[in-house]
Amino acid sequence: xxxxxxxxxxxxxxxxxxxxxxxxxxxxxxxxxxxxxxxxxxxxxxxxxxxxxxxxxxxxxxxxxxxxxxxxxxxxxxxxxxxxxxxxxxxxxxxxxxxxxxxxxxxxxxxxxxxxxxxxxxxxxxxxxxxxxxxxxxxxxxxxxxxxxxxxxxxxxxxxxxxxxxxxxxxxxxxxxxxxxxxxxxxxxxxxxxxxxxxxxxxxxxxxxxxxxxxxxxxxxxxxxxxxxxxxxxxxxxxxxxxxxxxxxxxxxxxxxxxxxxxxxxxxxxxxxxxxxxxxxxxxxxxxxxxxxxxxxxxxxxxxxxxxxxxxxxxxxxxxxxxxxxxxxxxxxxxxxxxxxxxxxxxxxxxxxx
Length: 354
Fold this sequence. Notes:
This protein is an alpha/beta fold.
């Protein structure tokens, strides 16, 4: 099968089991270390960097935003990290990052305002975050075994008929986005205690149906391709991998309760061991309009610049995986760090059966 890009997957496993640049899972240019999600080492996403320097950066991989933060906070050395937006405050509050010099990033002026509209990303003290990619979290399902009407509601995840046939991400942010949507909340920046409890109760019901929590999109795709799982709460990339293997996958982004949208990007770590000029070469290569097609084809995500999205606007993957939908959207924008910590702690209890 093609869906398991073995280098990235094995690299991700290595990053979980070895200590330091352990994370030297994908070793190349020793003057730039990128701490990233497995899968983003695909050269077509940053080809301009390779064209300039003759090789790509050294990549270290992680499978979860909180795991990445803990490693960096514990002393793991890299130059940049690729968190999703709700983690930025955590890195900044811990004193781990420094502002970007956007005068060295020409494409920053072309950033889609909708994807860069947060005081957490930029304030009077500087620009702390460069959004680079965005996508959806929605229902991936086997179109041959799951009727379309069953995925017209997020309640498919608590339907007893699907006991042992669903998979959820081992990601607190994504499962809470699902639970909030399922219980009628579309803005997680203003959640009451009652709404939190309702979402937690719903998640406990969903947990009873879970065959496995997936830690990266390749694992999710493998669970579905093996026949173990028929329905998953999925990012775009898991669907792209399954489509590449001719698996009968649907991506329901418009159940009646809605789906989720996330934004990810890069933070610049303080005292990175590499070459700062190469840090900016890497970001500029990522944001180049010609990189948008590679990002869409290999991961299924959208570019954050208007010129980048213009180059792919007519692609089918944009229409089905990123385009407008007639349903609510919960934007995974930065929320209260204390609330996020409570969600993380509650999710761990739920997974443990409590």
